[in-house]
Write a structure and sequence with these properties.
By secondary structure, the chain is an alpha/beta fold. The protein has 47 helices and 32 strands. It folds into 7 domains: 238 residues, P-loop containing nucleotide triphosphate hydrolases (Rossmann fold); 110 residues, Enzyme I, Chain A, domain 2, CATH 1.10.274.50; 113 residues; 274 residues, Rossmann fold (3-Layer(aba) Sandwich), CATH 3.40.50.300; 156 residues, PCRA, domain 4, CATH 1.10.486.10; 145 residues, Lambda Exonuclease, Chain A (Alpha-Beta Complex); 46 residues, no CATH class. This is Helicase-exonuclease AddAB subunit AddA.
Length: 1227
């Protein structure tokens, strides 16, 4: 094989630590295998003296196979030689020995290597050498058990401190402890991605404890640097606006105002966050002039769009920084450390109990493997400095070189483990690390690409073997995979969007792909092969507002339409009507027609995969979804678990009904009704027993299969107590006939494989944990609760299928034709949500709970910003991985509401005076499609396509593109709708007096069935007090009180109900127990407005004199002195539904509401409710009477609920009438 100069350098360099930055398709695996082989052959080093670490077992197996093949080929050459000298004989003997020891060589995953050294040195860490690695599902279920146990024990403690209950209030909700458990597990797992988890936790808690001067904290410094960077980007945006204004045909009248705004930003005081907050709050934006000016309309529109973007970004910074002017924010940030310290205490308890539980079961998880290996290799001295152990020194002297594949995916723990093998002794192993930081896409696995980046930026670049430095970097940038136009397209995109701030590195000449795969096109008609990258966009004609809300309906429509569009394109290609018509077969070494197996559809997430499969299948194109599906979601597994549940306990109605209705039994709905009517108040199994007694003489119809099913369950209930789970399930498959049945269905092989997998899981559970069907079913419930920890069986399918897979699944693979789909979808913000966030450097940040509201703290805000930046960088790398999978043809597809609007936004950022697109344009409205669109609109080829005559900047790109905009009528979905409509019209136009089937009367009898519990259908499960009041007063019914969807609601003018709502918000947010004077109340309201906790309109409607009178009233003074008082307390209460109507005699309804205020004095409750109703004081007595009549029921329900919940009597029910400053005592 002929090697490039860079490859040759990477192979031949010796006695150095080498970082190989290997771009996609650059032959890194071949280089790594060749280097190992050369060292074995040329230096007579045994293969077991190399440590080769990969991140997947398949990659390790492939590496072993490559080394084996190279050694075998060399041996075969010797064996074919006529004569061999002594050197040849020695080398042959050496190579044959390598074949012998290769199976035991250290070519494995990182976890296999850790297991190997733990087994070898088990006595040093007091661990059983035969310990087993627990399955992901087994470990997850155990984690849940231990977390629940630890929290239960904490609740049972008599001396719990106040902070513990603050943790409970902050991180739990009405649904239970699930959220807190998730946080405990999250912190524990995250800490284990650090070298010393307990030390990391202690250090991060100490960081919070030491938070005294907020301006000097790491979080304030980090946020300040981020803000300064954002402001710098905005100033650069203004540079572009000024440039446009100065164009010969630019909107020159805007120039002075634009320059003034930029100057305000340049003059900001960025000494610290407080000074920045104060100075940016003073930045003012004036309206652009409306004066008529002779300028280009497109440039004027672009100036306005840029300026609107700049203004929006400044306002966002203002909103973020306004909290730093609030003393409460600083106090909350400091107080949050107590909550986090308590959570960390619980995490440590959990970790201790979890370790004991795993030891008792004789299992370890993958984190344990890494940390046990760490314990063997490194330690901390009394000054908390890292030192290497004797084991590390011994291994360092044994191994000659450490090879690490996919180095960009290393985490901190793995870096120390592998680094210790090289660094523990003075002349220890060298390191050969291969990876591509542009393909680091495993943030969710806590990979740290900064490890790679730091070395890449600081190590010397080696272009030949003649280099003195010990640590060197080699760039492999020649791509041997893709056609030239695809390589050019990737370079054209990423040279404009990737940077150290977004993506991790500069996409310079070293990073750019170089064409290495020169396709021989003399053998084929040039029009038959790919010559352009194609972008296909479907216009959904959805309103932009709908698209932004990403509601379920719009997502469904756009995904279906795009799937139909992609399927139509693929159909044309396979029929020879599209491009390409031919692809080069790398195995046959010749061109041939395109087949389904040549095509891959890549998706960012798996949610829409079935839409694409269905669209292809409808066109008779075989497709296969290569996406891991949850094991417990498979229908055959659901059915079998229902069977097992019935065997365990037949008094479970839902699984029993599911099995009776299944094809195995075949009971009809009528059968179920007849069965239930035998004993309406009993469990369905009891009804079934009675039904079979009543029909003992009947031997026809479904009764036969129902009786067979009952006998089967009865026999297996006896068997359950006398056999193993494996035997029970095996016999159930056979005797029920279900295993044979699923084999005859579509995907029968996979269904049967899933059933076999269920039996394997049951066997392993019984071997490792405990026996018994009940315990196994409980275990599966826990596994289901913690998520997709069990995967469905993988079976081989026809090779000639279109493959549908996620971008993550596609990494390391390549396909002749690639569709990168759903590029329009915005990036997930899941990592930014939740009450607690984690970061390796910034530590732990949590929201702070006060007065039932959760506020962001300084650490939380700083971590949130950092994660957002890192997530955007990873999304860019994910896009790089997707685009580099294509060998011959690349399609980009997506869904848009309006092509013209989208194009205009792209052009705004295409018109610039530098190669890199402004960061503002990449960070706002981020999606893969917008990144690509903004990159390609300045290409010469694309400029002509979009007919943009006002581009002042033409990007010097080499790629050629084709863009097509589709509409709904061009895809099959529209035809399906028309066909369905025609079929419906045919049905509706039938003559209903004709008996077409001979069963007319029976059909009509069924359709006219009247459900005797029809009234209960409209009875809601839950209802608010205000809605219940309206129903009782005859102002509405159940249909009217259904909540209005959020996307329907419009802005309401500040009057009537809206005004009352604002007044109520004042009472809710303002602490009137603390603030009594008018000035104090006014200052507090202004503070809340500045923090965006109250609407600015409040200033125009609130009466401060009246508010002061309320705060100083006798009732509120009593409340201040009360034993217990609270405001805005939500509650739920189970109520007899008869309160609505007597016909609901045995029904219950959940009542929910919020009590405005309440206090307890002398063991009695006083209820307070604020009302802002208009009161006509000329007829005051009548109005008071009306108020009492209107709200009596509401106050009675509050009193009933609260009295029952607190087990205390209600002595007083009071209404405060804000409009007349009067208290009213209710009956």
């Amino acid at each position: 094989m002929k090697w490039t100069k860079a490859q040759q350098t990477a192979i031949e360099l010796r006695d150095k630590n080498i970082l190989v930055s290997a771009a996609a398709g650059s032959g890194k695996t071949a280089v790594l295998a060749e280097r190992i082989f050369r060292r074995i052959k040329d230096e007579f080093i045994n293969v077991d003296r190399f440590l080769v670490v990969t991140f997947t077992k398949s990659a390790a197996d492939e590496m072993k196979e490559r080394v084996f093949n190279k050694i075998s080929a060399e041996i075969e050459q010797f064996q074919q030689a006529d004569l061999m000298n002594d050197n040849d004989l020695n080398l042959l003997k050496h190579l044959e020995y390598q074949i012998e020891i290769l199976p035991q060589a250290s070519i494995s995953t990182i976890h296999s290597f850790c297991k190997k050294i733990i087994t070898s040195y088990f006595s040093k860490i007091n661990i059983d050498p035969n310990v087993k690695i627990g399955s992901e599902a087994e470990v997850a279920a155990l984690e849940l058990d231990i977390a629940e146990k630890v929290l239960e024990e904490q609740f049972d403690k008599e001396n719990n401190n106040e902070v513990f209950y603050q943790v409970i209030d902050t991180f739990t909700n009405l649904r239970g402890l699930d959220n807190l458990i998730a946080i405990i597990l999250k912190i524990d797992k995250f800490s284990k991605s650090t070298v010393f988890p307990t030390l990391w936790l202690n250090q991060k808690v100490d960081m919070l404890k030491e938070l005294k001067d907020i301006t000097k904290s790491i979080w304030a410094t980090t946020m300040l640097e981020n803000m300064k960077s954002e402001i710098s980007d905005i100033i650069s945006l203004y540079d572009n606006i000024i440039r446009l204004c100065k164009e010969p045909n630019g909107p020159y009248l805007h120039l002075d105002l634009i320059v003034d705004e930029q100057q305000q930003l340049k003059s900001l005081n960025v000494s610290n966050l407080q000074t920045l907050a104060t100075s940016i709050n003073a930045v003012k934006f004036q309206r652009l002039t409306n004066k008529r000016q002779d300028c280009n309309a497109d440039i004027n529109a672009q100036v306005k769009d840029y300026r609107a973007t700049a203004k929006e970004l400044v306002i966002k910074i203002k909103d973020t920084l306004v909290t730093f002017l609030d003393k409460d924010f600083i106090d909350q940030s400091i107080l949050s450390n107590k909550v986090i310290e308590e959570v960390v205490r619980i995490v440590k308890l959990y970790n201790k109990e979890f370790s004991i539980a795993k030891r008792d079961r004789g299992i370890v998880d993958y984190n344990d493997l890494e940390h046990y290996a760490l314990k063997l290799l490194v330690g901390l001295d009394e000054n908390e400095q890292l030192y290497y152990t004797d084991v590390a020194i011994e291994l360092s002297k044994y191994y000659k070189e450490v090879y690490i594949d996919e180095y960009q995916d290393c985490n901190n723990v793995q870096e120390i483990i592998l680094g210790s093998i090289a660094k523990a002794s003075e002349h220890g192993a060298t390191q050969f690390m291969v990876g591509d930081v542009k393909q680091s896409i495993y943030k969710f696995r806590l990979a740290n690409p900064n490890i790679f980046i730091k070395k890449y930026q600081t190590w010397a670049k080696a272009t030949s073997t003649d280099i003195k430095e010990k640590n060197v970097c080699v760039d492999l940038s020649q791509n041997f995979r893709s056609r030239e136009n695809i390589v050019n397209a990737i370079n054209d995109i990423f040279s404009q969007i990737m940077s150290p701030k977004l993506g991790g590195i500069t996409y310079d000449d070293d990073a750019k792909l170089k064409v290495g795969n020169l396709y021989n096109e003399t053998e084929v008609d040039p029009s038959f092969v790919s010559d352009k990258v194609e972008m296909h966009l479907i216009q959904t004609n959805l309103l932009e507002e709908q698209e932004q809300q990403a509601n379920v309906t719009s997502e469904y429509i756009s995904s279906h339409l795009e799937a139909e569009m992609v399927a139509t394109i693929i159909d044309k290609i396979l029929k020879g009507e599209g491009n390409p018509k031919k692809i080069f077969d790398t195995d046959l070494k010749e061109y041939r027609d395109v087949q389904p197996k040549d095509i891959a559809i890549l998706l960012r997430a798996k949610a829409s995969s079935t839409y694409f499969e269905e669209a292809l299948v409808q066109r008779d194109i075989e497709a296969h979804i290569e996406i891991d599906s949850p094991f417990l979601e498979a229908n055959e597994i659901k059915f079998m678990l229902s069977m097992l549940q019935i065997i365990d306990n037949p008094l479970q109605d839902i699984p029993l009904l599911a099995v009776l209705r299944s094809p195995i039994v075949g009971a009809s709905l009528d059968d179920l009704v007849y069965i239930k009517n035998t004993a309406p108040q009993e469990h369905f199994y009891t009804c079934l027993q009675q039904y079979l007694l009543d029909t003992a003489h009947v031997e026809e119809g479904t009764i036969v299969s129902i009786r067979w099913f009952y006998d089967l369950i009865h026999s297996f209930r006896k068997l359950n107590t006398a056999t193993t789970l494996e035997d029970l399930i095996s016999r159930l498959y056979t005797e029920s006939g279900y295993y044979r049945y699923v084999g005859m269905l579509k995907d029968g092989k996979k269904r049967q494989a899933n059933l076999r997998l269920l039996k394997i899981h049951a066997t392993k559970y019984e071997e490792r944990v405990e026996s018994g069907l009940f315990n196994f079913l409980q275990y599966l419930k826990k596994v289901d609760k913690v998520g997709d920890k069990l995967e469905q069986a993988k079976v081989s399918t026809s090779e000639n299928v279109v493959r549908i897979l996620t971008i993550h699944k596609s990494k390391g693979l390549e396909f002749p034709i690639v569709f990168v789909c759903e590029t329009h979808k915005g990036f997930s913000s899941k990592d930014l949500q939740g009450e607690l966030l984690l970061h390796h450097e910034l530590g732990i940040g949590a929201k702070y709970l006060e007065d039932n509201f959760k506020y962001e703290t300084l650490p939380y805000s700083a971590i949130k910003q950092a994660i957002k930046q890192e997530s955007l960088s990873e999304e860019m790398r994910i896009l790089y991985v997707a685009l580099t999978r294509a060998r011959e043809k690349l399609f980009i597809t997506g869904s848009i509401s309006s092509y013209n609007k989208v194009l205009q936004k792209w052009l705004n950022y295409g018109n610039r005076n530098e190669e890199q697109i402004l960061l503002n344009g990449l960070k706002t409205n981020s999606s893969e499609l917008n990144w690509i669109g903004k990159s390609i609109v300045s290409l010469k080829n694309v400029i002509s396509i979009v007919q943009n005559n006002n581009v002042n900047f033409e990007f010097n790109g080499k790629s050629t593109w084709d863009i097509k905009i589709w509409n709904e009528k061009e895809v099959q979905l529209k035809q399906d709708e028309d066909r369905a409509k025609n079929e419906l019209d045919t049905l509706l136009n039938q003559n209903n007096t004709i008996d077409y089937s001979g069963h007319r009367d029976q059909i009509y009898s069924r359709l006219d069935f009247f459900y005797k519990y029809n009234d209960i259908i409209n009875l809601p499960n839950t209802i608010s007090i205000s809605d219940l009041k309206e129903i009782k007063q005859g102002q509405s019914n159940f249909e009217q009180v259904r909540p209005e969807p959020r996307f329907i609601k419009k802005d309401i003018p500040i009057k009537g109900v809206a005004k009352g709502t604002l007044i109520h918000e004042v009472f809710e947010r303002v602490d009137y127990l603390k603030y009594q004077s008018r000035n104090a109340l006014q200052d507090e309201i202004n503070r809340l407005i500045n923090l965006n906790k109250l609407s600015p309109e409040v200033k125009n409607i609130i009466n401060y004199k009246r508010l002061e009178a309320f705060a100083q009233s006798d009732v509120i003074n009593r409340m201040r002195k009360a034993e217990i008082s609270f405001k805005e307390k939500s509650f739920v209460y189970l109520l007899d539904a008869q309160i609505i109507d007597q016909k609901y005699q045995s029904e219950k309804i959940v009542l929910h509401g919020v009590i405005d205020a309440c206090f307890i004095e002398n063991g009695n409750i006083t209820l307070i409710d604020y009302k802002s109703d208009y009161i006509n004081q000329q007829i005051l007595e009548e109005e008071i009477s009306r108020i009492k009549k209107t709200y009596q029921l509401q106050l009675d329900l509050y009193a009933l609920s609260l009295s029952d919940i607190l087990n205390l009597p209600v002595q007083e029910k009071l209404i405060y009438l804000y409009s007349i400053n009067k208290w009213v005592t209710m009956e």
